[in-house]
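To fix ideas, we close by showing one paired sequence and structure record:
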Amino acid sequence: MRKIRILAVAPYTGMQETAELIASKKGNIELNTFQGNIVEIDHIMNEIEQNNYDIIVSRGGTARAIVKRTTIPTVEISISVYDILRVIKTAGTFTGKYAIVGAANITDTAKHLCDFLQYDIDVFQATGKKAVYTCINRLKSEGYLMIIGDALANMAAKEFSLNSLLITSGYEGVEEAFEQAIAI
């Protein structure tokens, strides 16, 4: 039986390791992983073009950028309400002003969650390097001290010397994406 050739594009090391663990438990996957985000989209596309992948698994803005630039089926790793709640609870002990910044898949869920739980947390949608850096620069000038966000928002926050918390996808979300990839 031919193995399914999957490229997993992970925005952080932990997700890359989770993808490798899940693939190792399945006998029908040949997995290549690439750690990167939307900033490295040209490099990611070069990786895709040089190899013959059956399907791509990625997350957030990176997954959406890949879909726009290739005909290879792409499955988006979800970010669950629980993933966002976990990081908001961690941030709850922070005494400074903070905000959630990220692509729509993060901010839409975060807004609904904050509304439902009546949390007074500012949420800003920004996709792409320029938009994220502009947003975080503005937030810093407005006195925000910490950013909760995706990999790009985290990278930008650190460059602006702000504290940051990365919203990570749980094991279940990555596993579900692989199940969808196999089904496709």
Observations:
- The chain has two domains: 4-78+170-183, 81-166.
- The radius of gyration is 17 Å.
- Strands lie at 4-10, 29-35, 55-59, 74-77, 98-102, 122-125, 146-149, 163-166.
